[in-house]
Amino acid sequence: MPHALITGANRGLGLEHVRQLLQRGWTVTAAVRDPQGAADLKSLDPGDGRLRIEAYDASDPGAAKALQSKVSGPLDIVFANAGVMSRAGFGSAAGEDFITAMQINAQAPLALAEAFADQVARSQLKVIALQSTRMGSIADNTSGGMYAYRASKAALNAVGKSLSIDLKPKGVIVLILHPGWVKTDMGGPGGQLTVTESVEGQLDLIARANPAMSGRFFHVSGQDLPW
Ligand SMILES: NC(=O)c1ccc[n+]([C@@H]2O[C@H](COP(=O)([O-])OP(=O)(O)OC[C@H]3O[C@@H](n4cnc5c(N)ncnc54)[C@H](OP(=O)(O)O)[C@@H]3O)[C@@H](O)[C@H]2O)c1
């Protein structure tokens, strides 16, 4: 039975990934900051042991290793999905929020990849997926602002590219993904896609992952995005 690990799995895109993967018969380890409070996540439990909920705080540098010690066996997908957005603009953008975004959006996914690469390599699908955004594209930036979010996701993209090269000998495929503009707490009600639509698209992309896709930056539609 395939097994996925999803971070930020208590709401938004992460929660929907858990829902759809469980529906497809997968085992899912859902990593969340507050397992006790994750009511929506717990409500998805099919009661057959396929949903495992673990504590994980991406702002803790030791969190990935601690999580790894609790998850055994091959992992077909490790999805670094947890993320934060800072809306601080020019004049107040260089504060603590900037460091926090870098930690959660870029450093934590790298720590996850370091902790789980061997378990991913032992699986069938062998995918590490990074939840990026086209706001991390430098070429696509025509509106400025959003310094911490853009910079941290650009850093995540750089991390993904290096991982794709370093993990190639293990056969691990690293996908850098933009989910679209999605109606979630972060995306807001104006988003163009529902979580259902976005996650269906992301899981379809992941299902056809192959080595030629590793280290590329994909829109949920499957198109390559510019760096
Ligand atoms: N929505 C969009 O339009 C859009 C577009 C492009 C990219 N993305 C990316 O998609 C990912 C998910 O976003 P979303 O739209 O689903 O946002 P969301 O509804 O705000 O969910 C964010 C998730 O990240 C978790 N998280 C935040 N800080 C964390 C930490 N320190 N440790 C562990 N988990 C943490 C949250 O957990 P808590 O509930 O504990 O805070 C929550 O589960 C993010 O990486 C985001 O950048 C979203």
TrEMBL record:
Coiled coil: none annotated. Gene3D superfamilies: NAD(P)-binding Rossmann-like Domain. One of its GO terms (molecular function) is oxidoreductase activity, acting on the CH-OH group of donors, NAD or NADP as acceptor. It comes from Alkalicaulis satelles. InterPro entries: NAD(P)-bd_dom_sf, SDR_enzymes, SDR_fam. This is SDR family oxidoreductase.
